[in-house]
Amino acid sequence: MNDETLSNQAWAVLFARGVLGLIFFMAGGYKVFQLGALEHARQYFLPFQDTFLPVWSLWAVGVTIPFVELIAGALVILGFRVREALIALGVVLLIVTFGHLLKEPLYPFHEHVIPRLALLLFVLVMSRERDRFSVDHFLQSRNKSS
After folding, report:
1. How many CB atoms lie within 10 A of CB 102?
2. Number of domains present in the structure of the chain
């Protein structure tokens, strides 16, 4: 593979990672610092208490997700522990998808879930050596040269 192709792939991963990270980081920041994690659970998770899901699980997941989005979004932006952060955000997308389908089986996923999932999958399947503008790559390069 030539240098230009590697460079283009590095930029592609950076842009995809940056956009995805910002989407989750900003959503998490809003939910943690403006809305509040408890209010997030009340507004978006407690409406599911009429389903088979236990109320304690709605509170636990509803309060946890904003912090996962905030922290994992920041990690993705920085390019630090990207794989772990992407897996955490993938779990969030699965939970959101499950919840929407539980209430509305024909929910329009193209507006919310699919764009995030596409970016997440792209960054996840690209090899780590393509992600040259990341803290992970910097640390890996540093360890190899030591």
Report:
1. 13
2. 1
d(CA 43, CA 30): 14
Contact 129/72 with Cβ under 8 angstroms? no
Q: Which domain holds residue 137?
A: 3-145
> Taking the chain, what is the end-to-end CA distance rounded to the nearest angstrom?
26
Q: Report the residue count for the chain.
A: 146
**Hey, CA dihedral for 49, 51, 54, 60, is it positive or negative?**
negative
What is the distance between the alpha carbons of residues 9 and 129, in angstroms, rounded to a whole number?
Answer: 10
Burial of 59 (0-12, 13-18, 19+ CB in 10 A): middle
Question: Can you tell me the distance from the alpha carbon of 65 to that of 95, in angstroms, rounded to the nearest whole number?
Answer: 9
Q: pTM for this one?
A: 0.92
Distance CA 15, CA 9 (A): 10
Q: For 91-113, how does the pLDDT look when each residue is reduced to its tens digit (9 = 90+)?
A: 999 999 999 999 888 888 888 89
What is the SS3 assignment for 99? helix
Rounded alpha-carbon distances, angstroms, from residue 41 to 26, 89, 104: 17, 18, 19
Ranges of residues in the chain whose predicted pLDDT is under 70 = 1, 146
